[in-house]
Amino acid sequence: MPMEEMELKPGRHMLYMEWYSRDPGGLFMKVNRWLYSAQSPYQRIDIFESPFYGRVFALDGITMTTEIDEFMYHEMLVHVPMFMHPNPKKVLVIGGGDGGSVREVLKHPSVEKVVMCEIDEMVVRAAMEYLPYTASKLNDPRVELVFEDGSKFVRQFKNEFDVIIIDSTDPTAGQGGHLFTLEFYKACNEALKEDGILCAQTEGMTYDWEWGSTAYKRIKANFPLVKMYLGFMPTYPGGLWSYTYASKAGWDPIKDFNPEKVRNFKEPLRYYNEEIHKAAFALPNFVKKYIGEE
Questions:
Q1: What is the CATH number of the domain that holds 19?
Q2: Which domain holds residue 157?
Q3: Which residues bind spermidine (predicted)?
Q4: Residues 119-135: tens digit of each pLDDT
Q5: Is 23 marked active-site?
Q6: Which of 99, 170, 192, 255 is least enclosed by beta carbons within 10 angstroms?
Q7: d(C-alpha 130, C-alpha 136), whole Å
Q8: Helix (H) or strand (E) holding 129
C-alpha cells in the first residue's frame, strides 16, 4: 500500500541519497515533505518535496525528474525530433509515465494524437496526483494512455507514427532494459511512416557511456541517418545527457533544420532554441570515441 503523506516539523529534514551506478558518488537532497511511496509490480515509486529541487520523482532510488530541471530533459528529448518533422500528427511516446514528454509534444499545433505506452500504471496515476505540472497534459483528449510493455506494444504497428519518442528508464532499472535492444529499435523503425523520426534518451556519457554507445550503435543499425546530441541535465549522473536522433527518410538534423520554425513557435520554451538545436550535435572528442565516430 502507498505510504501516507508525511510532513516534517520546521527545522527538521530527511535526506534522500542516490548512489550512481559506478559508485563514484551520488546525488543528495534534503526532504521536507514525503508525498508518496509505493511498490508497484515493477518498481518502487517515490515522490517527495525538497526545499531546493521542488517535487522529486524517483524509481528504485534513481531520480527521474525534479521540478527545477525536468524541462531541460523533456524539451531536448521532444523538440529536436518534433521540429525536424514537417508535419507531425501522430506521435508515440514509449515510457515517460511522468507526462513531461507528452506535455512538450502537445505544444506542437499539428499534433492530432499522442499514444503514451507506459508499463507501470501506478507511475502515471501518482504523477497525475503529485506532479501536476509535469503530468498536466495526460488528461488531454488527444492523449491515449496504454499500460503495456512498450517493447511488445510497438510490434503491432506498421507505417503508423510520424514520430516515436523513447523516454525510458535506465536500462539497469526496472523494465528499462527492454527498450534498449536491437529488436526493439527495428520494431520502432517499422512502426514509423516512411518519413518518420525516432528520438531516444540514451543515457549519460560520463558514468554510463557503455549504454549510450550501445544504444547509438543499435539504432544506427536500423536507420539510414542517426546522430547523437547532448544536453545539460544537472540532476542526472554526470550532468551531461545524450539523446539519439534517427530519421527514416534521411533528414539531417543540421543540414535540413529550419530555424524559422523555432523562432515562430508560440509556446514557451525554457531550454531549447534554434542555437541549442544546432550546438547540441557538436560532440566532444571523448563522446565521438565512445560511439565510434572519431
A1: 2.30.140.10
A2: 70-290
A3: 74, 98, 167-170
A4: 999 999 999 999 999 99
A5: no
A6: 255
A7: 11
A8: helix 121-130
